[in-house]
């Protein structure tokens, strides 16, 4: 059975239009499926939880962007009977970009209905503490997660009215670049302590951002960790720190092609677990979602792998 979880407002309403064409094709092919339109926060997680508790194999298809994919995967209580797929409708679509999946909705649908390859992919887990609280919060990510300016970019983009206008002209990823450039020039850099499973804690000063990558791209096409693979049982960590602001402006555009690697102040590490502690609360992002401000955050790999249709 195919279960479609549709975010109709993703891509500034593109989700509803894409689903209309996908539904027409499903009906034409007389496919047995069930569809669920999201109406508010928490819907995707509740649906995903119910599907993973059915006790028999199902294919769950997210029709939306990276945020929708994150919400669906975060809702699964187990990956045992789940095969996951997506039909992209967002503006960033780094999940699709990182796995080289079809961007055309009908092509994506036919791949899902007639899969040639299903891969078992790593999923990232996050545990963090709210400032002045012992309560632990937990999140998942499949593309990337991080702190600093990239998380602040995600937060600012979600609040931006310009994003809707650029999405209308099919240029949604420009808002990520414009916002990133602005924040790089204006935001205050942080001091953070980073510890991985392969080394002692290191304190970095004047940090722009640190991102833990499961796929190569984030932020609408920035290839921050060119070597990141979602099936190698490792996370790739990038730290950008101590770089003069004007120099960052020349390095950032190179990240679209991965040519920022090797510059002074750009560190990339591979690890299975990383802990980040900050001197003050800082924005966290999980696949572009912004759950809040935290100071003590741990990233690691989920015990299970998720079966994903990739061809």
Q: Based on helices, strands and strand pairing, what is the structural class?
A: alpha+beta
Count of individual helical segments? 9
Q: What would you call the quaternary organization? A: single chain
Mean pLDDT: 90
What does this protein structure show overall?
The chain is an alpha+beta fold and 311 residues long. The protein has 2 domains: 2-115, Rossmann fold, CATH 3.40.50.10330; 125-302, Tumour Suppressor Smad4 (Sandwich), CATH 2.60.200.40. It is 30% helix and 35% strand. It has 9 helices and 15 strands. The strands form 2 sheets. Strands 6, 7, 8, 9, 10, 11, 12, 13 and 14 form a 9-stranded antiparallel beta sheet that branches. Helix 1 (10-28) links the parallel strand 1 and strand 2 (33-37).
Task: Compose a concise summary of this entry.
Helix content is 30%, strand content 35%. It has helices spanning 10-28, 43-52, 66-75, 94-99, 105-113, 149-159, 162-168, 173-186, 245-251, and strands at 2-6, 33-37, 58-64, 82-88, 118-121, 124-129, 136-141, 144-148, 190-196, 202-213, 235-241, 266-271, 273-286, 289-301, 306-309. It is globular and about 60 Å long.
Q: What is the topology?
A:
Layout: E1 2-6, H1 10-28, E2 33-37, H2 43-52, E3 58-64, H3 66-75, E4 82-88, H4 94-99, H5 105-113, E5 118-121, E6 124-129, E7 136-141, E8 144-148, H6 149-159, H7 162-168, H8 173-186, E9 190-196, E10 202-213, E11 235-241, H9 245-251, E12 266-271, E13 273-286, E14 289-301, E15 306-309
Parallel strand pairs: 1-2, 1-3, 3-4, 4-15
Antiparallel strand pairs: 5-15, 6-7, 6-14, 8-10, 8-13, 9-10, 9-13, 10-11, 11-12, 13-14
